[in-house]
């Protein structure tokens, strides 16, 4: 058995409509339009199961982005393993897309580099492009080739950025690491009696200071806050740990 995911469906599309469409590609075992448990309204996607993988492949190759009930269908291989869907392997991110670039345009452009598992242009509630999209390739090599060849190219007259997609968990992890490497410390609420020299003397015990500044008003009076920059991140971290006690 081979299963296809069919997305971007009109809410009124039924199993019988999909059967009539996909049975022209081969023997269809079953079709399920996914619906809301409470309202039973369509969620806009379905699964079509073929008896033979070759029939499913034929449907994918010949029917992707065909119009059904006024909307182009977005067809891809069904990938029900969430770990694979969320992984960054083979995933690329495209931004600065012209509004005329749709799912089919993205597919036609990037399918030259390898087998595409899924692709999508992000849209708003009215169906208008948000100017960015994603392509998930079967292999990391295909993804890297697409990045190398398409990044910086003109698509519909606009220079696009193409790069490796980072899952949210990885982005948050890297952001966390970067915050640990700060060397600047913001000091506040010390009144107007503390000048630059006094501030530096106060914070020198934590490590080697490369620069120090007290913010002043137009008359040269302290605003009660300033900055201390250390040579090493560990020194700055000591200050934050000490002042948080």
TrEMBL record:
<dbReference type="Pfam" id="PF00076">
    <property type="entry name" value="RRM_1"/>
</dbReference>
<keyword id="KW-0694">RNA-binding</keyword>
<dbReference type="InterPro" id="IPR012677">
    <property type="entry name" value="Nucleotide-bd_a/b_plait_sf"/>
</dbReference>
<keyword id="KW-0677">Repeat</keyword>
<feature type="domain" description="RRM">
    <location>
        <begin position="90"/>
        <end position="167"/>
    </location>
</feature>
<feature type="domain" description="RRM">
    <location>
        <begin position="2"/>
        <end position="80"/>
    </location>
</feature>
<dbReference type="InterPro" id="IPR034364">
    <property type="entry name" value="PABP_RRM1"/>
</dbReference>
<dbReference type="InterPro" id="IPR035979">
    <property type="entry name" value="RBD_domain_sf"/>
</dbReference>
<dbReference type="GO" id="GO:0003723">
    <property type="term" value="F:RNA binding"/>
</dbReference>
<protein>
    <recommendedName>
        <fullName>RRM domain-containing protein</fullName>
    </recommendedName>
</protein>
<feature type="domain" description="RRM">
    <location>
        <begin position="183"/>
        <end position="245"/>
    </location>
</feature>
<dbReference type="InterPro" id="IPR045305">
    <property type="entry name" value="RRM2_I_PABPs"/>
</dbReference>
<dbReference type="InterPro" id="IPR000504">
    <property type="entry name" value="RRM_dom"/>
</dbReference>
């Amino acid at each position: 058995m081979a299963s296809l995911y069919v997305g971007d469906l009109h809410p009124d599309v039924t199993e019988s409509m999909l059967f009539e469409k996909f049975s022209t590609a081969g023997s269809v075992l079953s079709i399920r339009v996914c619906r809301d448990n409470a309202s039973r309204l369509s969620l806009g996607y379905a699964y079509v199961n073929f008896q033979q993988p070759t029939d499913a492949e034929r449907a994918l190759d010949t029917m992707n982005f065909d119009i059904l009930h006024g909307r182009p269908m977005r067809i891809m291989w069904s990938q029900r393993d969430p770990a694979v869907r969320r992984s960054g392997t083979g995933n690329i991110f495209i931004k600065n897309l012209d509004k005329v670039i749709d799912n089919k345009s993205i597919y036609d452009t990037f399918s030259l580099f390898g087998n595409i598992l899924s692709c999508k242009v992000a849209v708003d509630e009215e169906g208008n492009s948000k100017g960015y999209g994603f392509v998930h390739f079967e292999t990391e090599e295909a993804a890297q080739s697409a990045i190398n060849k398409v990044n910086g190219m003109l698509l519909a007259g606009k220079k696009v950025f193409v790069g490796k997609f980072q899952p949210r968990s990885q982005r948050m992890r890297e952001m966390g690491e970067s915050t640990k490497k700060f060397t600047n410390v913001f000091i506040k609420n010390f009144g107007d009696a503390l000048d630059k020299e006094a501030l530096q003397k106060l914070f020198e015990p934590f490590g080697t200071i490369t620069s120090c500044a007290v913010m002043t008003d137009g008359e040269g009076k302290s605003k009660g806050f300033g900055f201390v920059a250390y040579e090493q991140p560990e020194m700055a971290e000591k200050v934050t740990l000490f002042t948080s006690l």
